[in-house]
């Protein structure tokens, strides 16, 4: 049953992004609606999967790379749904749907066995630390998606300046949210590390790259707030910054094993 829910969500997300691209290519609104319903179906299936996995494991499903990847894809999907419903940001689907599918596809390549929590993970900080990371990464990814749409729209000679401004501001708000949550990740991680390993900071590769990511987005906010930079330069910034986020998620675990190699 778990496999049906997981791979069912993967298939629905893939069908949704194919329908979304077809809708954009052939200018068919009906295909766009079908894409959205398919995406919602995929989100529902993934939600049921994570809930069922958590019930079976008797813990939050966030303890390893597979579970974090599935939760990461779920976080992107949830935030896309919220943005579409609250801000009518239908234009975001064309870039956010592929990212949801790609992150979940990466998760599908990881071992899916349900295991007990490692002793170091049995802490009250578990949900706060890892849950904040899920939504922090999701915010950064969506900010990058907004940046892509901004650049595509700005290349048009008759681009709507008001819409460009709204995209630019939305990207900034998403980065601000992600930065706040990443700060929570680092602070709770430091407290947790002191309890688990008697040290607030161990220069573990995951810690170092989380700090690099934090500094990178701190530079973005500095340029945005103090230097008043905006527009295409900032769009390129958030797009490039996403590669650092994804390296922190994927590359560090693959290439730089350390204390965080389990997740």
Please describe what this structure looks like:
The model has no long low-confidence stretch (mean pLDDT 91). This protein has helices at 2-26, 29-57, 65-87, 93-108, 125-154, 161-197, 205-225, 232-255. The two termini are 24 Å apart. The longest helix has 37 residues, at 161-197. The radius of gyration is 19 Å and the shape is flat. Helix 3 crosses helix 5 (125-154). By secondary structure, it is mainly α.
Summed up, what is this model?
The chain is an all-alpha fold and 263 residues long. It has 8 helices and no strands. It is flat.
Helix content: over 70%
The whole-number mean of residue pLDDT values reads 91
Are there runs of 5+ residues with pLDDT below 50, and where?
none
- Alpha-carbon distance between the termini? 24 Å
Structural class given helices, strands, pairing? mainly alpha
Tally of DSSP β-strands: 0
Largest sheet: none
Order of helices and strands: HHHHHHHH
Count of separate DSSP helical elements? 8
- Estimated share of beta-strand residues: under 5%
Q: How much is the radius of gyration in Å?
A: 19 Å
Anisotropy-based shape: flat
């Amino acid at each position: 049953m778990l496999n049906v829910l997981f791979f069912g969500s993967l298939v629905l997300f893939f069908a949704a992004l194919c329908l979304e691209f077809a809708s954009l290519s052939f200018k068919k609104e009906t295909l766009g609606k079908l894409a959205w319903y398919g995406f919602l179906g995929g989100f529902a299936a993934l939600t049921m999967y994570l809930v069922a996995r958590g019930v079976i494991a008797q813990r939050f499903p966030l303890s390893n790379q597979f579970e974090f990847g599935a939760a990461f894809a779920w976080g992107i999907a949830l935030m896309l749904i919220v943005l579409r419903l609250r801000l009518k940001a239908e234009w975001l689907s064309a870039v956010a749907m592929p990212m949801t599918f790609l992150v979940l596809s990466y998760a599908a390549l990881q071992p899916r066995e349900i295991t007990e929590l490692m002793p170091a993970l049995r802490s009250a900080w578990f949900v706060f630390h890892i849950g904040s990371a899920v939504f922090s990464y999701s915010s950064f990814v969506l900010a990058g998606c907004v940046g892509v749409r901004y650049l595509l729209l700005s290349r048009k000679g008759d681009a709507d300046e008001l819409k460009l401004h709204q995209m630019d501001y939305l990207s900034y708000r998403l980065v601000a949210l992600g930065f706040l949550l990443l700060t929570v990740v680092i602070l709770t991680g430091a407290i947790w590390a002191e309890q688990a390993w008697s040290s607030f900071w161990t220069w573990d590769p995951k810690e170092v790259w989380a700090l690099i990511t934090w500094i990178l987005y701190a530079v973005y906010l500095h340029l945005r707030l103090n230097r008043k930079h905006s527009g295409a330069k900032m769009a390129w910034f958030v797009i490039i910054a996403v590669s650092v986020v994804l390296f922190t998620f994927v590359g560090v675990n693959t290439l730089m094993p350390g204390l965080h190699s389990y997740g």
